[in-house]
Amino acid sequence: MTSGRLGGCRLLARLEGRSSLKNLEPYLFAEEGSPVHGDVIEFHGPEGTGKTEMLYHLIARCIIPKAEGGLGVEVMFVDTDYHFDMLRLVTILENRLAQGTEEMIKQCLGRLFLVSCSSSTQLLLTLYSLENLFCAHPSLCVLLLDSLSAFYWVDRSNGGESLTLQEMNLKKCANFLEKLVTQHHLILFATTQTLMQKSANSAESFLPLKLPHESDTDYRPYLCKSWQQMVTHRVFFSKQCNSGNSKDFTVVSCHLKRNQIVKRSFSVAECGVQF
Amino acid sequence: MVVLRAGLCPGLTEDMIQLLRANGIRTVVDFVSSDLEDVAQKCSLSYKALVAVRRVLLAQFSAFPANGADLYEELKSSTAILPTGSPSLDQLLDSGLYTGEVTELMGAPGSGKTQVCLGIAASVSLGLKQHVLFLDSTGGFTASRLYQMLQAQTEDEEEQLEALQRIQVVRVFNIYELLSALQELRDRLSQQVVSSMGPLKLVVLDSVSAVIYPLLGGRQSEGLALMMQLSRELKTLAREFSLAVVPTGIQVELDIGNGDVLEPSLVTPTQGL
């Protein structure tokens, strides 16, 4: 909405006030110096594999002040599932802060903005109205979206027979998110559910075109192309079945442009994600 | 898909609507996502007026961001923990059922879910003197069993009767009846009607799989969409009105066969909850 010179001044203010987010969570990324502003990271996996827990971990890393070891930046959390558990976040903060006093916690929570959406149309309109918030808060540079696939079945049912109609809202959301991320230099983390899986008794052979990470994690893309194309990193979450392992969850992180892959394990404790 | 019409918001006149429609802008989404300078030129409308309308439409239809600290304060004052009547179950749930949350009870048929639900209803009604809504979709609710549980907890007949009166039972045997009952509940709570239905704290839904399973299977995604709608409705009810919602169900993997666009198999129909 801002145009010309005014936009330029604001951009400069954003870049100057911007701190580097390279130390956000080094374990999640395949190469050093990630994430950078403009990155779009997708967390993909079945339910119960730690995606939302990882988001809480990232929120805690962001909103805890620098003095206590965090990054002290503001975070916007868009909740499409009505899934956000404030009490869980507070428990994580209490465990991570040296003095988990009410004052400190409230100060940290003051850096978190939350919005809940009930339909893909409302999500789209909310993203439009959030544009002003990003302009007004230059230090707000992390956008978390949980989850992007929440409206998949509803949209598919509403769109009838036409795939274009089914995907329209999500496509518009993806396009606008891309615009927000580039214009305001944000980092976007979005979770998607594994809604489609190969059936256990299928004798399908792997297609020769499958990338190495895909054969490992059985990834089936179902969201619109606009979203697939704007993702820069894809992180696959899965749960370990063998009980001998102390770490319960695994992430396989892929940098899509450079085709670099790294695999790590983590467990979830009272204080959140621990690598 | 909200269609633009006169009176939707101040400043949106019938003439404006006709001009916009002539240029292909029919819905709120079309209006908000279009370039207003462009529209002002094509429809020869005032740019300022369009910007003002856009601002009002966004304020009306988009969700409003809240600050974490404010939300936390609100949560501290409105969340209550309801004891279930069984100390070991309370321990498992971290002191009890939290209002504002949906707690799902899953188990094979005959594993005792209905009994636990009756126990929780009895505990909340008798112990906390709060109202309970019991949505029964299986016909498994028996008032005599509930009365038996209450008798075991208190000798006073007066108290037993009052506890029974605080539990409202609604029988719903398909998804549409269920959604309609939930809508009625929402209307009642929004209007804060003071009726025989006093302060409601607990909604039990026994069972959710009984209404969902008939919808799943086959090629239509409508069943899944209805399931998502139901789960969303339960979650928003819990959150907006500070209720503890307890649905029960059976967890089973379904293979829905070859879908139209993508290949199949869907895992766990209740994953939406």
From TrEMBL, chain A:
InterPro entries referenced in this protein's UniProt entry, alphabetically: P-loop_NTPase, Rad51_C, RecA_ATP-bd, XRCC2
Coiled-coil segments on the chain, per record: none
Domain RecA family profile: 13-194
Pfam families in the cross-refs: Rad51
Superkingdom in the source lineage: Eukaryota
GO biological process, one term: DNA strand invasion
One Gene Ontology molecular-function label: ATP-dependent DNA damage sensor activity
Recorded GO CC terms: centrosome; Rad51B-Rad51C-Rad51D-XRCC2 complex; replication fork
SUPFAM superfamilies hit by this protein: P-loop containing nucleoside triphosphate hydrolases (SSF52540)
Alphabetical list of PANTHER family matching this protein: DNA REPAIR PROTEIN XRCC2
Name this protein carries in UniProt: X-ray repair cross complementing 2
UniProt source species: Catharus ustulatus
